[in-house]
Please model this.
Amino acid sequence: MKNTPLNPSELYKPCNVEQLKFNSTEELEDIDITVGQQRAVEAVKLGMRMHKNGYNIFAMAPSGTGKLTTIRQLVEHEASRQDIPSEWCYVNNFSQPAKPKVINFTPGQGKIFQHDMTQLIDELSIAIPSAFDGEEYRSRAGELESESRQREINELSQLREEAANAHILLTETATGYAFSPANENNEIIGPEQFNKFDKDKQHEIQKTIFDLQERLAKLLKNFPIWRKETKRKLQALNREVAEQAVNHSIDDLIEKYAKQETVLNYLNDAQKDIIEHVLDFLPRSEKMLPFMEMAQESNPFKRYYVNLMVDFSGKKSAPVIYEDHPNYNNLVGRIDHQAYMGSLVTDFTMIKPGALHKANGGYLIIDARKLLFQPYAWETLKRTLKSGEIRIESLEHTLSLISATSLEPEPIPLNVKLILMGEPLIYYLLSQYDPEFHDLFKIAADFDETVARQEGDHDYVRLLATIARREKLRPLSQNAVARVIEHSSRMVGDAEKLITHLRSIRDLLTESDYWAGHNGHEQITNSDVQQAIDHKTHRLDKIREKLYENIHRGTVLIDTEGKVTGQVNGLSVMQLGEFSFGQPSRITATTRLGSGKMVDIERETKLGGAIHSKGVLILSSFIAARYCRKTPFSLAASLVFEQSYGHVEGDSASLAELCAILSSVAQIPLRQDLAITGSVNQLGNVQPIGGVNEKIEGFFDICVKKGLTGTQGVIIPATNIKHLMLRWDVVHAAQSGHFNIYAVTTVDDAVELLTDMNSGALNEQGVYQHDSFNGQVEAQLLQFTRIKKEFIGREDYKSGS
Model:
């Protein structure tokens, strides 16, 4: 029988301190934190250098692996080799203000143009009022107004003289003009005197007055026409003066931007608009608001402002933007509004840039999970990438929630490399359910959580030194580094691997630094690291402590001594957040004569998962194939996890379940001072399981509370030996012979350990030795078959009778 426990050296792989050629990490140089991520790094580099549509990147890695830091390092290095992209400005569309125009500039020129336009308006706000306040303008405007007034006066004077010659006086009244008859002394004749005239003279005077009134009416009708003509002349004069003032200031800009057609077109349009709105440049006190005219806006010069969306004047490379809150507006920009006279108004100066504007021509990094949580953000991002342009439109208008008019800014061409970061599950779900996903994200960068553990681990040690320096922590001593490396293997659950989950490493170093300061150490020592590990365990193990207490007090039944038929100690792992621990469970089996049905009570009560049920079916197949190849499988069995009130999943207890069933069949008791874990296949081979360290430590803790006897131990798959990184107290107990770890490769190995019997092998006749464990199982199954045949025979006899 193979019942030798594992050598204590196989239970823990210590770090060889002699391979660490330094006294503290202060002596080590920094290293990129991309240790062990060569595959992902190569994928990211390929994606960044592929300048074709759709070659965006999806970085797959769990949260906390440092993928953002890694990607930023890679992207910033690549961006430093790229040219600074163009800047984009929104300007007023003077013919259609609701559709602002866009102008692009070389890096730094956008800000200069913005300053030039501001300076132009400042100059014109002084030059135009000065031009209209000059002697020449006042003289010419006065002449036009004087000519207009004089013309009216002359016409009225001529009409007055003609009337006087006819002894008619033209007088002004409160309501206009009036004609009155006069005597030779030009005195108005009253009604009494007028009535003394004969009828012919009265008729003659009335006819003369009527003719004069008609001429006056025609003359008064001409006054508005002459005034409009004068107004047109004044407007022409204003335009002439304004053109002289504006052209003098704007000609320099036109010459400066002569080679940029879009800028030149805008300047020409602005020039015309300034001349048309020249009154906006005059002091308001000199202007009278016509009746019912709207009040002028507070800043009429805003129409000539330049809305610089992104300023790259201080940049030395292509932009790298990480958008932490990727909602709709933060991605494509927004259009703000302000209250004005009871309504909401907006203009091109209220257009705000989004992350796509800021990253245009460079790189944009977004967390996929945060993006998918934001309504309409994912669909909008896809639409923008496919169209190759950034179109700013309020979400309310996109969804047709409001019908009010708003701006329709001209779209900006998009040239950005997008990098999404997320869990692998998100990548696979999008691949499966979004048909457009692979058209837009052709590069997958898969980050690894582990790296191979090698002698010396020089790169990993430099990684620890780099993290300590970046986080402003104390340097680590040689022994502290060794302890961190060992615990890194424990965190990943593999003695041949190291964890690359940067958050876990950083947290361990940070807490170790605290305890180093608490203990008055200038460096982080191995005792500080161990104190950090122990304290974190203590913070999180309340539930474990309560469960183990229930076992110790006998509330939960677990035996650690003696032998029981059909009963075995199984092991499982409970994961609670960042803390996991092993939990022993009593597994029992009952067997009887039957038709080969294996009842999984967990499944029948809907407490068992599919994988656990699969494991139970494999047991049925194994028993039938091994012991009943030539006879009917006349067994019925029931399996259950005793005192289990939650969901059971996984097949790591299938070896324990098989041993319990076979024990019940053969009525051979199993040792209760051993716990067992492992998966088994149809051929009886034991397969590896997860959480082997936690499972061993869980049963060890129970045995310690109940008292170590020297015979207690745990049976594990031999393929799990490379995963062992047990606690030191477990290793020390194994070294002193108080606790044992056994590794098995087959069911027979496990049975021999649990029963202290030879498992037995097939002889030449294909039968197991009678005094072996397998022989006892085989004999009992044959007995079931004989009983079944006899019973069927009696029933057939009764039927025949």
Remarks:
- The chain has a mean pLDDT of 87.
- DSSP finds 26 helices and 29 strands in the chain.
- The radius of gyration is 48 Å.
